[in-house]
Design goal:
Layout lengths: L2 E7 L7 H6 L5 E6 L8 H9 L5 E4 L3 H34 L15 H11 L4 H8 L3 H10 L6
Parallel strand pairs: 1-2, 1-3
Amino acid sequence: MAKIGYARVSSKEQHLDRQLAALKGVDKLFSDKLSGANTKRPELQKMLAYIREGDIVLVTELLMTNLIIELYKYQAESERKRIIERQQQGIALAKQQGKYHGRKPQYTQDDPRLQHAFKLYRAGMSDIDVSRNTGIKRTTFIRYRVKYGIKRK
């Protein structure tokens, strides 16, 4: 567990002295001289990449609220990445074991509604009009049309 300090002032003309004095004794210190409106502050990004679970982050005054929000966002984003990674590993393992076959198709090739849509398309209707007349989403219809090689006469 480490104590991490972060100090920031809005412009190059301002001084960090008071904040640095308040953060004396931290294990690692990060500081920026950039506007608080921009979250793409180099030292803030370095700090977010540096901190680990259990670290204590010390900031000065008005930065507290914004920095806490940034830390929560960073934590949520990291957790989401870990969830996706674990999910992809699980899917890959299930595929290797023959247990995962993906989502079932919405329509089969002989589905009457899809066949009707193909008929309308071959008769000259646009993808949008076919979608409006059949209730099949345009992108879904196009995907099935391409999949089954349906072309106009």
